[in-house]
Design a protein that fits this description.
The protein is of the alpha/beta class and 254 residues long. The protein contains 7 helices and 15 strands. Helix content is 19%, strand content 30%. The strands form 2 sheets. The chain has an 8-stranded mixed sheet with strand order 1-15-14-13-12-11-10-9, with helices on one face.
């Protein structure tokens, strides 16, 4: 697939969980990691915090784009935008309006769907926990994302927010959204690439995240949405388990 993005960076797995890729080098090069699906490469470009871009065989996908539209200027226009939930570090109507192209589709949870301005809502599809959508020929599963710890329940109540599984042929990508180590996450199987958050008090701590990842054992995991937390601690804790998951580090806060 011909895109404006040419410079890619990849890492080599070692035994157990491995931390790879220098943040600064990736940020300066706008580089990404490439994963092979049956129909072609899927390249992940971290942007910031919970926002990232994927160039895929079915088109360019933006996840939770927020902030200045200039952060996305070097990327192709999105064919699909995923929105997990309504918090300001995941949903911003002004950013959406600035980055959408003439054919961009939007997939969101029902709560955000109801908040969308009319022009954005006209190109949007809503999907609730446990439901599926098919966009661009890609089957997308809506996975629950919620808090379970008593003093965190107000942040992400059960049943409102989404995670997503993107089912490319030969490659399954899990975007957790804002969640703790819920049973639905731990029960996942056959995940190739996962994006898992940890930051208190809004999601979970490094130990919860490492424990959950060790249980569903994706091939690769990106720590993301970890402001004021320690991704190296997460990687170390995961490396102490029997999981052979490789940790991918991205320049989320450069």
């Amino acid at each position: 697939m011909i895109t404006r993005r040419r410079l890619l960076a990849t890492g080599t797995a070692a035994a157990g969980a491995t931390v790879i890729l220098p943040y600064a080098a990736m940020a300066a090069a706008h580089a990404g990691n490439t994963f092979e699906a049956a129909e072609g490469p899927v390249t992940v470009h971290p942007v910031s915090h919970a926002s990232f871009v994927m160039e895929t065989p079915v088109g360019t996908i933006y996840n939770d784009p927020v902030g200045e539209a200039s952060a996305y200027a070097d990327f192709p226009e999105p064919d699909l935008i995923l929105i997990t939930h309504e918090h300001g570090d995941h949903y911003n109507a002004d950013t959406l309006s600035a980055v959408v192209g003439p054919n961009t589709q939007i997939l969101t949870n029902p709560a955000v769907f109801e908040m969308l301005p009319a022009g954005l809502k006209a190109r949007a599809t809503q999907v609730a926990n446990g439901e599926e959508a098919n966009i661009l020929g890609l089957r997308i599963e809506a996975i629950p994302a919620y808090n379970t710890t008593e003093d965190r329940l107000q942040y992400h109540p059960e049943g409102r927010d989404n995670g997503y599984i993107l089912n490319f042929e030969g490659l399954r990508v899990y975007i957790a959204g804002d969640t703790e180590d819920i049973p639905e996450m731990r029960a996942l199987s056959d995940i190739d690439v996962a994006f898992v958050p940890f930051n208190l008090p809004y999601t979970m701590d490094e130990a919860q995240a490492a424990s959950a990842v060790a249980e569903f054992a994706p091939t690769y995991v990106y720590p993301y949405h970890y402001r004021d937390s320690d991704p190296e601690k997460f990687a170390r804790l995961l490396g102490e388990t029997d999981a052979e998951t490789e940790v991918k580090m991205g320049p989320w806060y450069e």
